[in-house]
Amino acid sequence: MKIIEVDDELYHYIASRTQAIGESASDILRRLLRLPASPQPFVLVQENMINELKDLAKLPKTKKVLTDQEKLIKRIEFTLASSVFTSETKVVNRFLQILSALYVMNPEEFAHATENVQGSERIYFARDKETILATGSSVKAKQIPDSPFWVITNNNTERKGIILGSIMQAMELPETLIERVKNSLA
């Protein structure tokens, strides 16, 4: 057996495709690449896989937008299924994990989405803590992991869900995923 290094995004993609407990990375890759379950000489790669790769190369450039959206959806699904997320007991930490995933996968779109998500008297997102704290005497803010953004954190669970839903809608994510995220906070 050989050892190969893969970047974090590829690792998370492979891990997100696990169908059974204990399934190895080799098993997952064999299934995804439509290779036989047991090792075979590489020459036996199925012809339809080669044709699929040729078809993929012919797709128009606009497919990239869909691919980026699919990656974002997969990242959120991976976050929701991760043991770090499911074992977290504090709603605020789950809230921050989802926001972090949204930012990491599309910083530009996330930044644009935060511009219009705010309360009637409070700012929900800012690039510094002080901007959020200035909107009230009892306001608490935390930095979103792996991002330059800060977010208000002392809202109730329902409001956190509304905030996440608004960001995800602005990022044009599917309504079913938004509902799953909101339900994951409860």
From TrEMBL:
Signal peptide (UniProt feature, chain positions): none
InterPro entries: Arc_rbn_hlx_hlx, Ribbon_hlx_hlx, SeqA, SeqA_DNA-bd_C, SeqA_DNA-bd_C_sf, SeqA_N
Gene Ontology cellular component terms for the protein in this record: cytoplasm
GO biological process, one term: negative regulation of DNA-templated DNA replication initiation
Pfam families: SeqA, SeqA_N
Main location: cytoplasm
Name recorded for this polypeptide: Negative modulator of initiation of replication
Residue ranges constituting the Negative modulator of initiation of replication SeqA N-terminal domain according to the UniProt record: 1-36
Record-stated family: Belongs to the SeqA family.
Alphabetical UniProt keywords: Cytoplasm, DNA replication inhibitor, DNA-binding
Species of the source: Ursidibacter maritimus
Upper taxonomic lineage: Bacteria, Pseudomonadati, Pseudomonadota, Gammaproteobacteria, Pasteurellales
NCBIfam families reported in the protein's UniProt record: PRK11187.1 (NF008389)
Gene Ontology MF, one: DNA binding
